[in-house]
Design brief:
2 domains, phosphatidylinositol transfer activity, CRAL/TRIO_N_dom_sf, single chain, CRAL/TRIO N-terminal domain-containing protein, CRAL-TRIO_dom, globular, mainly alpha, CRAL-TRIO_dom_sf
Length: about 160
């Protein structure tokens, strides 16, 4: 009754050509980049944003522009370890020294090891770790794994807070 469509190499080539076309379209829509935005907005970055928005250029453009604005204001690439080291003293969040079975970088989060009250510093610490994990991904790796250990978590210990504006 139903036939599985075989994904031939011809189909894959067509997809690849269409994806490259969409990447070029997004690049044109974003316009010229400079400074740190130029370093951040690689072809792999454009591909991730397009993939996240089902290859819709307008939606990917909006999402990427918001990210560029956030990165310009927050400056995650300027966060230094010595500024956030106190957040990492208990090992509540760290990048594992191993990869999962698919070769992905693993971030381990242990919220029960919370040692500070400053939401801003906690977010800077998390941002620092994510940025460094992403920077250390192998060329073809687009994902990372998060392992969260809730041992020792007390509900009242963690307040909800707004992460973005």
């Amino acid at each position: 009754m139903f036939r599985w469509r075989n994904n031939t190499s011809h189909d894959q080539e067509n997809d690849s050509v269409q994806h490259e076309s969409k990447i070029n379209e997004l690049k044109a829509a974003i316009g010229p980049l400079s400074g740190r935005s130029l370093q951040y907005c690689t072809d792999a970055c454009f591909r991730r944003y397009l993939d996240a928005r089902n290859w819709n250029v307008d939606k990917a453009k909006k999402m990427l522009e918001e990210t560029i604005r956030w990165r310009s204001a927050y400056k995650p690439e300027e966060i230094c370890w010595h500024e956030v080291a106190v957040e990492g003293e208990t090992g509540k969040i760290y990048r594992a020294n191993f990869h999962d079975r698919q070769g992905r970088t693993v971030l381990i989060l242990r919220p029960g090891m919370q040692n500070t009250k400053s939401i801003d510093n906690q977010m800077r610490h998390l941002t620092y770790l994510i940025e460094n994990a992403v920077l250390n991904l192998p060329e073809s790796q687009e994902q990372m794994a998060w392992l969260i250990d809730f041992t020792g978590v007390v509900h009242k210990q963690h307040s909800t807070h707004k992460i973005s504006s």
